[in-house]
Amino acid sequence: MSDSHSSSSSSYDSASVGPTPLNVVESHRSTDGSHPFSQELTPMGSRHWRDVVWMLIFLAHLIVIGLALGVSGLDRFGEKDRLNAYSCMFTLVEETDDLTEDFWPLYAVTGGVGTLLGWAWLLWFSAHANQVMKFMVHLLSTYLAVISVLCFWDKQLFWGFAFGVAAAFQFLYVISVIDRLPFTLLVLQRAVKMVWDLPEVMRAASISMLVMLLWLALWSFGVAGVLASSIGDFVHWWLLVVLSVSLFWTGAVLCNVVHVIVSGMAVLVLIHGGREASSMPPNPLMHSLRYAVTTSFGSICYGSLFTAAIRTLRWEIRGLRSKIGNNECLLCCVDFLFHLVEFLVRWFNKFAYVQIATNGKSFNNSAKDAWELFQSTGVEALVAYDCSGAVLLMATLLGGLIAGTCAGVWSWIKCHNRLVMVGSTAMLMGMILVGLATVVVESAVTSIYLCYAQDPLLICRWDAAFFDQMSEKLHQRLQHRSARTREVSSHRVADQIQETIAI
């Protein structure tokens, strides 16, 4: 939440704000030396099916979209209007000689580039985390600006303006959070360490990427058929938007399935003190996978519709809010949006997937419980300070932009009139493929925070030095929040006194 609205963590805003590392552990230790929160986090026992309606909606959507993609691709595969798929729905406004196979190779290139970028990014980050984070943070703004210039050069004014605005927002966001990057790097390094200690996680990510590539083969086949059809640009864009939303939802669901699997594995590792502990359950990957694709799949489908968009909007508003200054009118408007987004975050946040993995609750209950836990313990101040999610999103966006650029350049040479359509859809494909690689790190980050809030000793046993650094930073953030609260209160009292005197 905002620095000036921290009533939920008021118990920490006293003279002794923030617990010391030893006190954090002792405060969660029961009289018999056990750690009750560890029992709550253990993903064992029977599960109930949750959010089943959303699972059925998602599966029905896959069937309908899959059939539509197959028909669309076949309609122009090998010969024009083989099935007359569009003639009964739309009035053909132009005649083209394009075929599905004219565009399909462009998306094949995108799939290959996106897959290579995802794994290259993960391998590079594991070896040179500091350099990679600086590279991602600064290169994205530059890349967006370059694409904006190229769009203006090609007289694509709308896209040039859009990429230019995106570059400006990215630059402002980086400037607003530059002081948070050292702590973000620390968290990401530990998350990568956890991921690489779990070879099963990498296998799960590899399988998910293969599944996504198979779906993208069908999706791009259908989109290539749409691009080759002679239905006019307006209908082209309308169909591409519908198919892109479908792909976004499908990609988000698959990413969050991996998220739940990795979270379940990470929590088990933290609870049992390591991957090789004798108390670890046999075959933990299948243990997490079974719940992710059965009883909790509906919750994943439901949450995948909203979490990414709300989280991105929250980051942007936070960055904008910190740079407004004393413009009361603008600050009032942004504050309204800020609190609206914070309300939505309470019901749609990425930490819900950890609760889904460990407790099998519905998505909304998981999101609400996770957020209330963070606020009641004060850990929300640490979560709000960390920018690891934003850095991972930058990596995903950059990967998508590079993949889209590769397809766009080929399209500019081969079929210039479809440049923007091919480039935008290829960019979405690249983002999803890179996101499947980065989600394993994000899952480890969210698991670390939730376990720290539930039972700090779990983090202390896993990495004592990291635990001390987290506790020290939490203490600093709670002190900062308390100081800001006192400052705002004193200003309000002063304003009330001045108003009284004026009256």
From TrEMBL:
Keyword Coiled coil among UniProt keywords: no
Subcellular location, principal: membrane
GO molecular function, one term: transmembrane transporter activity
A GO CC annotation given for this chain: plasma membrane
Transmembrane segments: 52-74, 104-123, 135-153, 159-188, 209-231, 237-270, 291-310, 390-413, 425-450
InterPro entries with a match to the protein in the record: Choline_transptr-like
Keyword Transport: no
Region called Disordered, residue ranges: 1-40
Domain of life: Eukaryota
Protein topology in the membrane: Multi-pass membrane protein
Biased composition regions of type Low complexity, renumbered to the chain: 1-16
Alphabetized UniProt keyword annotations: Membrane, Transmembrane, Transmembrane helix
Subcellular location: Cell membrane; Membrane
Family classification: Belongs to the CTL (choline transporter-like) family.
Function: Choline transporter.
PANTHER family, per database record: CHOLINE TRANSPORTER-LIKE (SLC FAMILY 44), PROTEIN PNS1
Name of the protein in its database record: Choline transporter-like protein
Species the sequence originates in: Olea europaea subsp. europaea
